[in-house]
């Protein structure tokens, strides 16, 4: 079967796919239709927090799908309530709304902040965001995201967002007017290239929001559920948000998103927000199993330790290939390898040929986001494969 031809016949051309058809996954590995294995350092774009088909998630889904698949949110369901309790009791937030994706969570968070602005900030509605940010693919979230490449095809964009320079507190202060109700940030920018703010930046933004009465929204869609070395990234910065969004790793592979908020900012009333599939029993069961496993087995700590180990190995690789690797940055197991030149696509292709999946997040940067329960042995294997890919790419350039 020519799967590539089938995709071209039936799918809209919205993504440039790698020449790989994955048919099976287990832990940190996937297999193609010919039985070849690959070490996966993309993990579904940071979705497969516990790797592929983790037994805790598989068992939870199998049990739930045999009992109850879907109801409307007109009724209570146990998986939804158990997940809500687990997330609230292990965070600084008080209330939750469950949706289906990160974009949906971001949309809902902005709606919640604007509702708060209407009720308590004299109708203020604008949200300050920053360059390099990414908050989703809906039209409003494209407008919120600080990346013109996503915005240009859809102009004119919805209003209500002010985009300022990343890691620049003064820029946020200057953008704050009487019509601003909130600031929305990623604690670490993922899609923007794994950009880590300075230690005092988020604390400064928190102080500014407190001073001006603004809502602070943390987009933890990619950083939440242990990815950066703590259950939520805000914990490692010692800065609490007023509203937080989650998705990606939350469901352990199944699609789910969440908006969490402190009581003061939980201003939705009946009918002001909703979702048909949000809080689906099967996805909630998967999410509950994932988060429970992460907490009980201190997977966040493994992400911290293995992130440090991976960074060390990458820095040694940089010393070995200074002409190819310019630097390494990241937090926990969200890491970028900065390259010398726009060679990320070519290097990712070489990695694929060598049995390693990586993400060319920018033309000159690779993003690594493996399963949070990755082992040292698997990291060593990945470094060997990456080293081979670098050598092969360098040889082809010279040829």
TrEMBL record:
Cited InterPro entries: AcOrn/SuccOrn_fam (IPR004636), Aminotrans_3 (IPR005814), Aminotrans_3_PPA_site (IPR049704), Class-III_PLP-dep_AT (IPR050103), PyrdxlP-dep_Trfase (IPR015424), PyrdxlP-dep_Trfase_major (IPR015421), PyrdxlP-dep_Trfase_small (IPR015422)
Main location (coarse class): cytoplasm
Stored HAMAP family: ArgD_aminotrans_3
Cofactor requirement: pyridoxal 5'-phosphate
Reactions the enzyme catalyzes: N(2)-acetyl-L-ornithine + 2-oxoglutarate = N-acetyl-L-glutamate 5-semialdehyde + L-glutamate
Family to which this protein belongs: Belongs to the class-III pyridoxal-phosphate-dependent aminotransferase family. ArgD subfamily.
Stated name of the protein: Acetylornithine aminotransferase
The EC number(s) this enzyme carries: 2.6.1.11
Entry keywords, A to Z: Amino-acid biosynthesis, Aminotransferase, Arginine biosynthesis, Cytoplasm, Pyridoxal phosphate, Transferase
Residue(s) carrying N6-(pyridoxal phosphate)lysine: 248
Binding site for pyridoxal 5'-phosphate: 102-103, 134, 219-222, 276
Record's subunit section: Homodimer.
One function term, GO molecular function aspect: transaminase activity
Location within or outside the cell: Cytoplasm
Miscellaneous information on this protein: May also have succinyldiaminopimelate aminotransferase activity, thus carrying out the corresponding step in lysine biosynthesis.
């Amino acid at each position: 079967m020519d799967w590539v031809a089938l995709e071209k016949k039936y799918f809209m051309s919205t993504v440039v796919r790698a020449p790989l058809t994955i048919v099976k996954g287990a832990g940190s590995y996937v297999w193609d239709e010919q039985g070849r294995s690959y070490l996966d350092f993309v993990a579904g774009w940071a979705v497969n927090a516990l790797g592929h088909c983790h037994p805790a998630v598989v068992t939870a889904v199998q049990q739930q799908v045999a009992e109850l698949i879907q109801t409307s949110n007109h009724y209570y369901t146990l998986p939804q309530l158990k997940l809500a309790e687990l997330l609230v009791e292990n965070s600084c937030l008080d209330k939750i709304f469950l949706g289906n994706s990160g974009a949906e969570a971001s949309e809902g968070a902005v709606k919640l902040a604007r509702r708060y602005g209407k009720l308590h900030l004299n109708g203020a509605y604008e949200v300050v965001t920053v360059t390099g940010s990414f908050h989703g693919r809906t039209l409003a979230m494209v407008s919120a995201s600080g990346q013109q490449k996503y915005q240009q095809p859809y102009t004119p964009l919805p209003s209500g967002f002010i985009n300022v320079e990343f890691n620049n507190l003064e820029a946020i202060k200057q953008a704050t007017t009487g019509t601003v109700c909130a600031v929305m940030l990623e604690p670490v920018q993922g899609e923007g290239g794994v950009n880590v703010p300075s230690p005092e930046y988020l604390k400064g933004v928190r102080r500014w929001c407190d001073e001006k009465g603004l809502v602070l929204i943390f987009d933890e869609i990619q950083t939440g559920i242990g990815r950066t070395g703590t259950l939520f990234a805000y914990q490692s910065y010692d800065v609490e948000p007023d509203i937080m969004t989650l998705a990606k790793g939350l469901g352990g592979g199944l699609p789910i998103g969440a908006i969490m908020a402190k009581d003061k900012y939980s201003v939705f009333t009946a009918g002001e927000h909703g979702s048909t599939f949000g809080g689906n029993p099967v996805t909630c069961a998967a999410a509950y199993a994932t988060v429970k496993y992460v907490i009980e087995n201190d997977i966040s700590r493994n992400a911290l330790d293995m992130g440090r180990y991976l960074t060390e190995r990458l820095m040694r690789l940089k010393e070995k290939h200074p002409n190819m690797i310019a630097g390494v940055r990241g937090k926990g197991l969200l890491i970028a390898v900065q390259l010398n030149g726009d060679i990320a696509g070519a290097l990712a292709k070489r990695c694929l040929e060598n049995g390693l999946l990586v993400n060319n997040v920018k033309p000159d940067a690779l993003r690594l986001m493996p399963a949070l329960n990755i082992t040292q042995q698997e990291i060593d294997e990945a470094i060997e494969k990456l080293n081979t890919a670098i050598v092969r790419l360098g040889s082809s350039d010279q040829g």
